[in-house]
Amino acid sequence: xxxxxxxxxxxxxxxxxxxxxxxxxxxxxxxxxxxxxxxxxxxxxxxxxxxxxxxxxxxxxxxxxxxxxxxxxxxxxxxx
Length: 80
Known about the structure:
By secondary structure, the protein is an all-alpha fold. It has a domain at 36-69. The protein has one helix and no strands. It is rod-shaped.
């Protein structure tokens, strides 16, 4: 039988693969933490968006009422 051919770089390749796997695991953990943080930020931003929409509605109502008050005052002055 012929002797088995061994790869002289096998040990080095194994060490490199172990390092790559370790780094991919660390990257995966970092991405999971990033996703958790982004989820918290999105929840916080959703609350800000709701307040902003409420404020815009309030602002439109105030503008509408002020314009109607101006029209009422002007109409009353001309009618007198």
